[in-house]
Amino acid sequence: MARFLHLTDLHVVAPGTLCSGVLDTGAILRSGVDRILAQIPAIGPLDGVLVTGDISEDGSAESYALAEQELARLGVPVYAVPGNHDCRVNFRSAFGAQTWMPEAGAVDWAINLDDTLLIGLDTLVEGQGAGRLQPESLEFLTEALRTAGDRSVVVALHHPPLHTGIRFMDKIGLENTEELAAAIPATCKPAIFVSGHVHNVFLGRIGPHRVVTAPSLCSAFAFDMRPDARVGFYTGPTGYALLDTGAQDSWTAQPLFMGDGPFDF
What we know:
- It is a single chain.
- The chain is 23% helix and 21% strand.
- The strands form two sheets. It has a six-stranded mixed β-sheet with strand order 4-5-6-7-9-8, with helices on one face. Strands 3-2-1-10-11 form a five-stranded mixed β-sheet, with no helix packed on it.
- The chain has one domain (3-255): Metallo-dependent phosphatases (Purple Acid Phosphatase, chain A, domain 2, 4-Layer Sandwich), CATH 3.60.21.
- The protein is α/β, with parallel strands linked by helices.
- The chain has helices spanning 25-43, 61-72, 88-94, 135-146, 167-170, 177-183; strands spanning 3-7, 48-52, 78-81, 109-113, 116-120, 152-156, 192-195, 202-206, 209-213, 239-244, 250-255.
- The model has no long low-confidence stretch (mean pLDDT 95).
- The two termini are 34 Å apart.
């Protein structure tokens, strides 16, 4: 069994600037890490942090340096994939010392952690919001899954292979979900695909495999399926998720900010 903190969509900008002119995402990340550290006694020890993309908003080296500094305070290994706002060159530079980082090409990786196979896939198409898994990434996934054996399988990617109903996000979703489904060997035991991008919690499936999206650490999108729904974001609710692997596996979203309490029943 392994326990991972699942963070996504940090959208950190260079110090002294605001994301979308509104959010001080560096300060939001710092506060979020403070709260998570305070919650460690309640949620238990962690084996690692999964970050499913959009670590940076502006792709700047400064934003990655800030994010790396804050994530390091969690004191556990960081496993990350890029999102549509990330810059692959600066992403690679920031996490280049990590053993999972490939030397070149797409940021696809696979790590065996005791009874868990952790796979990261790169869906970034630089210059556009939508995501796509390139043929080499699909081939990488197929080969990695063939080695899974009896291990629990977690696949991390930014763009979720599901439909949300939020029209402006579905327009920039994963473009080749069907190709992803075809790349999963029929003999693969049920896996969990963990994603971000949609700044909200959604659950779905690719065949027998679960798909989950974590809340963003910095902002949220309204669940509004109307054709004329306003395109924009809210400052909350924000949060993170926890993933346990193994025979009693589970995934749960957690808010960063709680109300007053606890009060006696």
